[in-house]
Structures are given as C-alpha cells and as structure tokens.
Amino acid sequence: MGKWWGVMLEEYLPALVHVVVGIGFAVVALLTNFLLGRAGARSKAKDTPYECGMLPAIEEQPRFSVKFYLVAMLFILFDIEVVFMYPWAVVFREYLEREGVLIFWSMMGFIGILLVAFLYALRKGAMEWSR
Amino acid sequence: MNPILLEAVLVCYAFLLLLVEAFNSRMPRRYFGWAAVVGTTVVFFMTFFVDSSKMNPEAGYYGFYAADTLAILFKRFILLVSVCVLIMAIEFAPVLVRYLPVEKPDAGSGEMYSLVLFACAGMMWMASAQNFVMIFVSVELVTITFYVMVAMMRGNRASLEAGIKFLILGAIATSLNVYGIAWIFGTLGTTELPEIGAILQSIDSSLFPSLLFGFGLIFAGISFKVAAFPFQFWVPDVYQGAPTPVTAFLSVGSKASAFVVLMRVLESMLSNSELSSKILFMLSLVAGVTILMGNLSAIPQTNFKRLLAYSSIAHAGYLLMGAASIVSGNSGPAIAYYLMAYLISNMLAFGVLLVVGKSTGSDELVHFNGLGKKSPWLATALTLAVLSLAGLPFTVGFFGKFFIFSSALQAQQFILVGIGILGIGCGFYYYLKVIRAMFWLPASKEQSISSPIEISKPYAVMLILLSISLIIFGVYPEPIFNLIP
C-alpha cells in the first residue's frame, strides 16, 4: 500500500478520532442504560416518545399546504442568486481588465435565465399565496 | 458558425416558448409542440454548418466543450430523438391533460414541449463535455428536467410514484458521481479529460486505489443513466409510470448521451494499460450481468411498456459489451451504430405503443391481441420494430448486434459473447410474444367492436419514415456507417 495511505491517515486522524468517540459515546450510553436499568423491561408507558409530560395527542403528522414548499423553493432560488452575485461583484474589478466582457455577460446570462424563471412563476400564479 | 451556438439557440428558443406559453393562455397548446418541432429541426440543420475552428481558445468555455465529429454526430442523433419525442408528445397531449388537475381543458400541457427542448440541450452538452465539471452540470440539466417530465401526469398515481422513485434514486446516483469526481480531482488535480489521459500515462501505481475508487463511483453514476446492472432497479417502474413519450426519450436519448460520456471518460482512463485492464474487467462483468438480468427478467412480463423497460436494460448490456471490448479499436463505431439502430427500432416500438395505449387506455400486452386484424399497418410497424430489437437479419438491429459482437470477438471476450448469444436467444422469445399477441391471439370481446385506431397524419408519417429507414439501413448500412468517425 505504501506511503500514500500513511499520509492520508495522518491527516485525517482527528476526524477518525472524532468518529470513534461519537460512536463510542452512543454505544456506552445505550449499554449503561441497558445494564443499569431493568434490562429488557418494556411497558406501554416506556415506549411512548416522551416518558413524562403530556401524551402526544396528534395521531399522525399534520398535513400542511404544498404552497409552503413552493414559497421555500422560490426563496432559495433568489437567495442563491444573490449568493452567487456577491463573490462575482467582489472580484469583478480585479478581472475587469482581462476578462471584463466575458464575466459580465456570464452573469447577465445567469440573471437572464433567472428572470425568465421569475416571469414564468409570476405568470403561473406562484406568488398569489392566498389562492 | 461557432458550435456553441447550437445549444445556445435551442435553450433561448425553449425560454421563448416557455414565456409565450405563460403569457398567452388562449393559443391551443399543440401549436407550441409544432413550434418546438420546427425549432429542433432548424437546429438539426444548423449542425451541418458548424465550424469548430471558430471556437476561441481564449474563451472561458474552451477545454470544457469539444466539437469533434463524435460530438456533432451525437448532437444530430439527439436532435432527431427530440423531434420524434415532440411529435409523440403532441399525439399524447390529450392523455396527459386528462391527468392534470387544472380548470381549463388545455392548460398545463405546454410546458412539456419546452422541457423536451431543455433536456435535448442538456444531452447535446453531454455529447460535447470533456471536463468533469461540464459532464456533471449537463447531466444534472438532463436529470432534473426528467424529474419533472416523469411526474408530469400529476393526477396519475403511477406517474407520481415513478417521479418519486426517479428523484430519490437519481439523487443517490448524482451524489455517487460527484464523490467520484472529487476523488479523481483529489488524486490528479484536474477535471479535464484530455489532461487526465496525459497524466495517467506516467503515473505511480500507488495512486491506483483512489483512481479506481473514483472511476468506480463515476461509473456507478453513469450506470444509473444507462440502466446497467446494479443500478437498474428504477427502470421498470419509472418507464411504466412515466408518460410514454418521456419513456421513449429516457430509453433512447438519455442512454445515448450517457454512453458518449462513458466513452469519453474511458478514453482518458484507458491511457494507462495497467489501469485499463482492471477497468475493462469491471466493465465486462457489469455488461455480462446486465445482459442476463435484462433478458431473463423480460421473459415473464405481461405489460408491454415494462417489457420494453427490461429490454432497454438488456440493450444497455450489449452496449456495455461493446464498451468492454474497446481494445479492439472499432467498438466505438459499433456502439454508435448500435445506438442509431436502437433509436430507430425503439422509437417505432414506443410510437405504436403510444397510439395503442391511447385508444385502449392500457399498455398491457393483452390489449395488443388482434391488432393485426384491427390495424394491420400499425401491427406491421410494431412487428418490424420488435424484430429489429431482437436482431433479426434484414433489419437495422441486426447490424447493430453484428458490429458489437464482432468487436467483442476481436477483443477476445469469448465468455461475454457466449452470454450475449444466450441473451439474444431469450430476446427472441419475449419479442416474438408481442407478434404472437398481434397476429395469433384473438381479441377479447369488448376490443373486437372498436374500430381501427386513428392516428394523425404527421404521426403516421413519422412511423412510416422510421419503418422505412429500419428496413433500408438493415439491408444497406453503409450510409450510417460513413457518418461515424
């Protein structure tokens, strides 16, 4: 296997330790619970998600409107647009001399595509939230 | 003309259609379909005027985008597939609209045509991609478009189920792909395929584990797209649930463009002989199992669409067999020819399936009973299609199989050839089952009353052209073979 694995292991040793400690903690916690508590004793009360406090009253997951996802998706869409534009704007001046035209029109193309998407969403009533 | 204009024109045109569709609610939706057909045809003829020397080496896309003869050939191929799919989508629109929960009878079917154009542009980019970043982005464009198209009939449970399955499994395949790209980039420090090929020629063998791991992951992502063995589970359900034109597009277009990517990746990875023997062994293994798996599972199918899905897995196996015998030197042209043959025969099969399914409301094989009496022309076309898929001489499918097998023999892949022959034997059984249903089995009572299946004129012209080319290229394969580099 040679040197390659050695370098790899050395660099990632902290991550490996982290993983081992994480798994080890979970195993130890579960084992102590199992050994010190009354092993295997299960009752209806014990199997509820919360052993103390009020009973969970709702049987299943509540349904909520699919519009939530629509709004969330549109939000991400335009949020990401700005995320892309920030670094672009920061380096724009630096690259202005060499590749100004290229990077300007690249961003314009990107915004143009998003504009089409925005117009489409607007026209199809994605923004009429009360409907 | 600069080759990058092809995709740019197509995408801009798709945007235009999308916006016109959104702002004009009165125009009948099938006009958009015909507009898309015209646009795709125009781009198809534009491919004859491209000049790759116009590409500016200084521009940012250079090194990402190849416009060699292979790329142009596959761009034409994909444009032809898209034209067929668009014509099928126009014919299918009444069925699609039935499953859309919308107020106006026509609304909601217009997006399909723009989506086909987007997927087509993505596949064209895949054909040109020679950088892992470009490969990833174009594959994602195609896959995400397909997520929408597969679940297009959102009032239909099967379509929704297909959509969810495709989405989840597709996301897994994507993540495997990216992880593989990250490993290769981490090992070699580049994502450009020609550069990777150059580096690999003189590389220390201690880097092989990470390279093979990376390639394996990328190959897993590609296997998902071509429906090869360990990643074929989604195929039957998704093919069955998706709208028929989308299924045809998935089976032909998606597979073909993924094979171009595979060929390009292989070309760069095989420049190291020690590495290539390991990769080719993996490829032959996957090819053999895929052929067996696809053909054997197709035998008991009673739903024609599902049968075509398993046959699509089997064909992916034959194509991989060609890829595994790449050392013979002429497996590239063999794969290209096979894909052309697959385009013609599979489009014809799906074309007939679409109209039969539309008139009977089901894709079950039982509904093909007595089709020979009811609509003899459709039955003839389907007979030609399945015979070509089975690989009978004097059909285009025969030459496809012939070239693949001869290149496999040259590469001395004798076990693989044996498995392939076994697979073809199974293939004859289940393909001829369709012919038996059409000509021998009597139609059930409620079916025998119904009149011959009506199809629109342009659709009939498409079916006739496909049938004619199926026979002509089956007797005289020269013209297609000359196109292939």
How does this structure look, described?
The complex is a heterodimer of chains A (131) and B (485). Chain A is an all-alpha fold and 131 residues long. Chain A has a single domain, classed as Methane Monooxygenase Hydroxylase, Chain G, domain 1 (Up-down Bundle), CATH 1.20.58. Chain A contains 3 helices and no strands. The termini of chain A are far apart. The mean pLDDT of chain B is 88. Chain B has 485 residues and is mainly alpha-helical. The longest helix of chain B has 32 residues, at 157-188.
- Parts with pLDDT < 50 across at least 5 consecutive residues of chain B: none
Largest sheet of chain A, described in full? Answer: none
Instruction: Report the count of strand segments of chain A.
Output: 0
* Contiguous runs where pLDDT drops below 50 for at least 5 residues of chain A: none
Number of helices of chain A: 3
Distance between the termini of chain A: 64 Å
Judged by helices, strands and strand pairing, the structural class of chain A is mainly alpha
What does the main sheet of chain B amount to?
none
Write down the Rg of chain B. 22 Å
Distance between the termini of chain B: 21 Å
Overall geometry of chain B comes to globular
* Quaternary assembly: heterodimer
Tally the beta strands of chain B.
0
Give the SSE map:
The complex is a heterodimer of chains A (131) and B (485).
Chain A: H1 3-36, H2 44-47, H3 67-123
Chain B: H1 4-23, H2 30-46, H3 69-98, H4 111-128, H5 132-150, H6 157-188, H7 193-200, H8 208-226, H9 234-241, H10 244-269, H11 273-298, H12 304-324, H13 331-360, H14 371-374, H15 376-390, H16 396-410, H17 414-439, H18 445-449, H19 457-475, H20 478-483
Helix pairs in contact in B: 1-2, 1-4, 2-3, 2-4, 3-4, 3-10, 3-13, 4-5, 4-10, 5-6, 5-10, 6-8, 6-9, 7-10, 8-10, 9-10, 9-12, 10-12, 10-13, 11-12, 11-17, 12-13, 12-16, 12-17, 13-15, 13-16, 13-19, 15-17, 15-19, 16-19
